[in-house]
Amino acid sequence: MSSIAKPSVRHPSARKNAIGLTKADYEGAMSTLCAGCGHDSVTASLIQAFWELDLPPHKAAKMSGIGCSSKTTAYFMRQSHGFNSVHGRMPSVTTGANAANRDLTYIGISGDGDSLNIGLGQMVHAIRRNVNMLYVIENNGVYGLTKGQFSATADVGSKSKRGEVHEQAPIDPVLLALTLGATFVARSFSGDKAQLVPILKAGLAHRGFALIDVISPCVSFNDHEGSTKSYAYVRGHGVETVATDFVPLRRSITVPAQHDEVTVVQMHDGHRVRLHATAPGYDPADREAAYGYVRSCIGREELATGLLFVDAAGRDMHDLNRTVPSPLAQLPFSSLCPGSAALDAMMARYR
Amino acid sequence: MSGVNDFAFKMATVNGTGSASANSLLMQAIFRMGVPVTGKNIFPSNIQGLPTWYEIRVSDDGYTARPGAIDLIVALNPTTYAQDFASVRPGGCVLYDSSWPLDPKAQRADVTFLGVPLGDLCRDAFTGDRDRTLLRNVAYAGALTALLQIDRAVIEQTLTEKYGRKKSLLEANRRAIQLGYDYAQAHFDCPLPFHCAPRDRTREFVLMDGNTACALGALYAGATVGAWYPITPSTSLMESFKALCQEHRVDRKTGLNKYCILQAEDELSAAGMVLGAGWMGARSFTCTSGPGLSLMQEFLGLAYYTELPGVFFNVQRAGPATGMPTRTQQADLFSMAYASHGDTKHIMLFPADPAECFALTVAAFDATERFQTPVFLVADLDIGMNDWMIPRLQWDDRYAPDRGKVLDAAALDQVQKFFRYVDTDGDGIAARTLPGVDGKGAYFTRGSGHDRFGAYTEDGAAYQDVVDRIRRKFETAARALPAPAYHRQDGADIGIVLVGSPAAAVREAVDRLREQGSIADVMRIRAFPFAPEVTDFLGRYQTVFVVEQNRDAQLRALLAIETGTPRDHMVSVLDYAGQPLTAGALVSAMTTHLQGVAR
Ligand SMILES: Cc1ncc(C[n+]2csc(CCOP(=O)(O)OP(=O)(O)O)c2C)c(N)n1
Ligand code: SF4
Ligand SMILES: [Mg+2]
What we know:
The complex is a heterodimer of chains A (351) and B (599). Chain A is an alpha/beta fold. Helix content of chain A is 29%, strand content 20%. Chain A has helices at residues 38-53, 68-71, 90-100, 112-116, 120-129, 173-180, 193-205, 231-237, 287-299, 317-321, 339-347; strands at residues 60-64, 81-84, 105-111, 133-139, 142-143, 149-150, 184-189, 209-215, 238-247, 262-266, 272-277, 303-310. The longest helix of chain A has 16 residues, at 38-53. Chain A starts with 37 loop residues before the first helix and ends with a helix. Helices cover 40% and strands 20% of the residues of chain B. The mean pLDDT of chain B is 97. The structure holds thiamine diphosphate, iron/sulfur cluster (SF4) and magnesium ion. Magnesium ion (MG) is lined by residues 67, 69, 111-113, 140, 142-144, 151 of chain A.
């Protein structure tokens, strides 16, 4: 992954968050992606979300696979450890890391090819395990880094830059995650920071696997007329289904008056997420309905966006494995090794 | 062979019929009589209905290799009668179920046929097909108790321990033993000329398979994350680890686990999980066999280049492809030594028996963290799944894990700026940091080209600087890993080299060669990359045999590549049919070569 060290310019008057960090403190190396690449906008939203959340950078781990999208972990939070693994296999590395240290915040960034082609199996199983992580797919319908081949999210009828029409059925990560029992499923657009930032924050606060499919146009290979992942297409076809409002823990919370269109979700860590259904009658706690709604939008060539489904009561991988609350990697050796007397006693079994 | 405490017998049965517990009862009883004993299970890759064999060797001399000749066979599987009868040495015995007539043409004149109506006895004594089938096995154990003079008090004691609480099962087993015993006493000259006599040679020993010993090693080394995908013959390693953790790693107060076992969706994922956990500072491992090893290749290369720890147990089976999953081989040496694309190399440790599985597993966890690179603990089906007689395992409570160069917050405070891949003391090992400790230690782990500072690079010199340091790291490792084990004799002019489980057969072969006047030294290599003394040994003898269980002489090739010793200076002794080696096969191969040279 290429990166250029970015001079950190700090304006003395730059606003600080609750842990005394400016937004610049959440930046990373200079991006080497194409100018206008959707992925860079996602990076900007990530920085905004982490800063607003007062996330201590060294308590986060940035995980990715391979692709233009997977490079973006280098472009934010330089004070976090990052792991740029192999193509399509970030979920397993994150699963192992999380198993060893449950105290960190895991931020996984992937691409549509990385997650839904080569890495489909790993993503699916990470969802099933409900690994506690934010999982962002920067979805552009192509393999950007290998110069524009169709990926598994390319829609039927979408045109490649060379004019080739795609004919294979796509995999929709949102529908897939809903059928797999994912506990947090959202879709957004790289160009809609106002929508994306609260969703990212909600995803980070969620305990369990938080999938966010972010349509993120590839200006070099998939932003032309006839593409269904271009800026123009998404602007014309995106419909905000659920508007998300992230209510931070430390501010006083005014619960809005109950009426049909607002759902308040209490996150595990005390944060709250307020969801306003802009589609009439939409209930983000109803998996079946969410699935049906997203499908019906696809039928109308619309893209349902927002935090589409959330179940804050799901049990994550550590709950399912009944692991101790302290990180396994930090348990003292003396509490792990049964010692010589126990071994002597065990030997009787093998006689 | 053939005498008191010096013989071998074999049970030929159908798998899934419950013979395993009768066989282990026999083996355990002989062991408890103080007599050295070994068992080899030769089983099909199938759950029920195919032929299976169990060989038990009794040896006062303590030889543990697979026996060369069978003195007695218990033939209970008519579909394999022909080959089973043929497998007995002249003058030996066949014990068969005489409830059904035996074709006289199938019989051999030079062996004694002992008919015991096991089926009839059990039909009359027990009810229900299942019980009758299961207890038929116990009845043959009873007959052998008489024929081989196995201590009945020991059998009784063993049964009581096993079925103590289940009174009716205990009674049925006792009765079946008695049926077989009484029949044999009444109809045959008991005991046979070869039989057991009590000794006191097993007091300090246990019977254990290597997978269990590896699991114990992982438990004692403090491993907390195990990721795997089941595959024969490595499956029981993680299953043992799980059972041990349930016993020793559950917090008493809360009932919560101080371990996490992840059954992955495949071996790619298992490898990724191991590395993720290792990156976080946990001791992590996976266990696999051939096909799984193939799937792990890309991650192994990533771990090599990004310098991450993780222990990879490879319990080898016969390849290629699915191959023979229930047969043993040492044919993965190439695919481990240089696993993955690009210039790579991986540490391998080679235990020769379950005792060493335990010790070298602990060494593997130390080595992987010290050298920040994957370590293979290389076993095979013979070590992993068969019960071996080994000295009681012991643990030194002074042991402290070697976590390698890891900078904690205090250490980071002392450095101006942290750079991931800088070697400050010349051993080729750069200090690492763990996520979550301090922002100052943050770095980007990347499989793409990087320089010594951890930054992305496509600059040739900066790239080479890092890979050359990694090469130096492996030179350090070669000197620090477990040294070869030697068996030296005065006047030796033959050298024998091997890794792993063939050690048992080699030990016996060397004694036999000596009786023939050929004197050999043995070097059993325990680690790759090879220690410098390996090269010295190869150069010291006129004849050097390299004994290994694969077709392509992979160990010899590695020796040639890594030590520069001419390949043709080393004579390959190969056995790759999938069974544990016998001393006889080795002696005859070596003798043939030596005679050829003399002529
Ligand atoms: C095993 C393997 N096969 C192929 C590649 C080549 N490759 C690198 S990135 C990529 C596709 C990336 O597509 P996507 O995940 O959608 O990311 P994007 O570049 O579009 O953001 C491919 C095929 C690789 N790195 N590894
Ligand atoms: S090729 Fe496409 S995805 Fe890659 S950086 Fe350029 S615009 Fe972004
Ligand atoms: Mg893409």
